[in-house]
Amino acid sequence: MKQYAIVILLFSLSNISFSQNLVLNEKEYFETVGLNVWVFNNEYNGMFFDEKTAGIEFIHHGVRTVTGGAIRLQNTPEQWDLIPKMTSRKVDKVNNTIEVTLRYEEFDFDSKIIVTSKGKGFVITVILDKPVPKKLEGRAGFNIEFLPSSYAESNYLADGKAATFPRYPAGNTQMQPLSQKIPQFAGHTTFDDRGRNEFIVTHPLASGKDFLFAPENPERTVKIQSEDQEILLFDGRNLGQNGWFIARSMLPSNKTGKVLTWYVEPNAIPNWKREPVIGFSQVGYMPNQTKVAVIELDKNDKALSSASIFKLGEDGKFTEKLKGDVKVWGNYLRYNYAQFDFSSIKEKGLYYIQYGNHKTNTFQIEDDVYSQVWHPTMDVWFPVQMDHMEVNEAYRVWHGKPFLDDCLQAPLNHEHFDGYKQGPTTETKYKPLERIPGMSVGGWFDAGDFDIQTFSHVSVINSFVESWEQFKVNRDETYIDQKTQFVDIHRPDGQPDLLQQIEHGVLNLVAQVENIGHPVRGIVVPNLHQYHHLGDASTETDNLPYNPSLKPYESNGVSSGTMDDRWAFTNRSSFLDYRTAGALASASRALKDYNDELSAKCLSLAIKLYNEATEIEKKAKPDNSPMSRWGKGSDMIAILQLYLSTKDQNYKKGFLDRIWKLLDENLEFNINSALLAVPSMDDSYKVKLRSYVIKYKEKTNKENTDNPYGVPLVKRGWGGTSQVINWASTNYYIHKIYPDIMDKEYVYQGLNYIFGCHPYSNLSFVNAVGNRSKKVAYGNNRADFTTIAGGVVPGLIFLKPDYLENKDDWPFFWGENECIIDGGAWFVFLANAVNDLAREK
């Protein structure tokens, strides 16, 4: 067997041409054709900890396949395990070296990593000024992580012995005493230790000093050689489905200076060029719409002079209908771009784009091409997100009735996860960990997890009301019964689904105000081992109210001693009060003829919240924090919605007294409120607003010229799909009010971006919408590597200094793939807005 492995190794190496020397470029990362090596261009996140977007990383033949190169304290670190803080980074272009210093404050432990180009690869050196602290002996090591979707079912060689990267985690594990576990964030733990005071430790798949990964795949081949310490290969998926393959060497005890040296040599295919990405709408186009494909090219590639459009004929064959010029746009971030305008093609039918040897999949040109694109979002995605309901679809049960155990008041001075915190008081009538009754009603799961985020609910309700009032969306494809808490997808019940969803969201907001006393930051599970729960939401708790007189996991049939009930984080803010007041006021109008009793309650509570928030603000100290500045105008949203619902002239006066100042201070944040008010104001208001609209258009036009897609591309760690949708929706309102200022193409442009005319790939960012759409998403079913139809993913994250990414083979990047409720609601509005424009003559 060993001889066979050596033969494979020699054969593989004979077919691999390793890269030219890596050099440091002006963007401060190592580069050669087909390979980029980043050294802490991106840092570990202090809020969400290890997001697999930091440390030493590879962009290998255009794809990020390696991440997390750093000193870590576990064989297979999980998201909430401690991360090192980078305290310094030095780039030495003369010597082709990057040096970073890392620190674990909790253990007073510093280390230095030096990465130096050498030959056709690079050397990683770990240097310690002081020995590894006693508590970290046998625990601190250098890790680097390899993406399972890039390496599973490939082979590797460890000191010449061949083996296979498993498709599914299959390594060995063992239990160790909990006292030996390195603490996780703020005392939380990802491990459910019921019944045993132990935790899981993974065993290596293989060990050696000389590894070769994926020798049969030149695009992914990587050689790693250790000069001193043994290399261990682990499978992180044994602890969490989002784990990666990890190459790790332990740091020796009682040693300083150079303690670890690796030589790493990723293969780079000679003269490699990334395949062009032809961005276009996977949904298609209307005949008279502007149609521009954006072609994304490797920086070493030059645009061809022309491209063609082929149409399917009655004979079943495709024939060329247009051969047009390709216009060079220029460089954006790391790629070159060109554009191909085929707007002259207006005949209805089925088409594809041909660019050189590259042919796209087919797409349609039809009058009603956008008419149904929002149906999966309302028919499937939102029903699946419904909390406190059993949700059925044909033969499938998405989840049972979850969280029937209400919730508990969060404890004082508590730092939770996912940004939740409770201050020194509850600001409610409840004592810490006291049960809050009446909360097992309404609401949606915020995203891929199962918490109630109040502000997201506010955004959804406001957007749904806009869709109802602007377009009277009366589609009925879902059976929703609040009495039995049952939902059946694809089963009409005679009521508009949109109104039923507004009702469902409102029920939870009303419950918060009536039972807690005011809107709360959110309601979330108490334990980290619950928070990462995947699958059926009804199994995240025992659905029995907590009873402190019972022992853990003990039940009397109606309550239990298990502390698994969700906690309400009840710190009060005038910002949230105002925004909730605005949502309830708007919902009161939509629900007037559907649920008159709930409608009246919404309006009454909205007035109450607005008055209380005003009093809170009068007593509050001046606050110039970024959040406070961002929230300016929230009271105006409430005032406007209260005026629209009551026609009380005092609200109108309050709105007009402040809206112009707010537009001057933050035009983009407040322009939507100003536009929504137009139908209820006189002509002078519309005339005055016109200059602000012109200024808004000029500002956004200037900002959007920096990219070839002409939309607001967001450069951050959470994708910008929602920003594009909201930009296009604002453009819709402007077009309807001032058609001479804003052309309808500014609306279509945003939707086309969402449907595939964007960087990195040409997949539709709406699951199951378009000829080619996302295959995976970060939902409660993410471990199944699938999607929930109609979910809108965040899209492209930005990794410094120049990389936009949206992976479709790895669902666990929430910044790229996590569908959120307000993003779905905004998409429903935009899709209906485009259909409204399609009816314009």
From TrEMBL:
<dbReference type="GO" id="GO:0008810">
    <property type="term" value="F:cellulase activity"/>
</dbReference>
<dbReference type="GO" id="GO:0000272">
    <property type="term" value="P:polysaccharide catabolic process"/>
</dbReference>
<dbReference type="InterPro" id="IPR004197">
    <property type="entry name" value="Cellulase_Ig-like"/>
</dbReference>
<feature type="signal peptide">
    <location>
        <begin position="1"/>
        <end position="19"/>
    </location>
</feature>
<dbReference type="InterPro" id="IPR012341">
    <property type="entry name" value="6hp_glycosidase-like_sf"/>
</dbReference>
<protein>
    <submittedName>
        <fullName>Glycoside hydrolase</fullName>
    </submittedName>
</protein>
<dbReference type="InterPro" id="IPR001701">
    <property type="entry name" value="Glyco_hydro_9"/>
</dbReference>
<dbReference type="InterPro" id="IPR014756">
    <property type="entry name" value="Ig_E-set"/>
</dbReference>
<keyword id="KW-0624">Polysaccharide degradation</keyword>
<feature type="domain" description="Cellulase Ig-like">
    <location>
        <begin position="275"/>
        <end position="358"/>
    </location>
</feature>
<feature type="domain" description="Glycoside hydrolase family 9">
    <location>
        <begin position="440"/>
        <end position="776"/>
    </location>
</feature>
<comment type="similarity">
    <text>Belongs to the glycosyl hydrolase 9 (cellulase E) family.</text>
</comment>
<dbReference type="Pfam" id="PF02927">
    <property type="entry name" value="CelD_N"/>
</dbReference>
<keyword id="KW-0732">Signal</keyword>
<feature type="region of interest" description="Disordered">
    <location>
        <begin position="539"/>
        <end position="560"/>
    </location>
</feature>
<keyword id="KW-0119">Carbohydrate metabolism</keyword>
<dbReference type="InterPro" id="IPR008928">
    <property type="entry name" value="6-hairpin_glycosidase_sf"/>
</dbReference>
<dbReference type="Pfam" id="PF00759">
    <property type="entry name" value="Glyco_hydro_9"/>
</dbReference>
<dbReference type="InterPro" id="IPR013783">
    <property type="entry name" value="Ig-like_fold"/>
</dbReference>
<keyword id="KW-0378">Hydrolase</keyword>
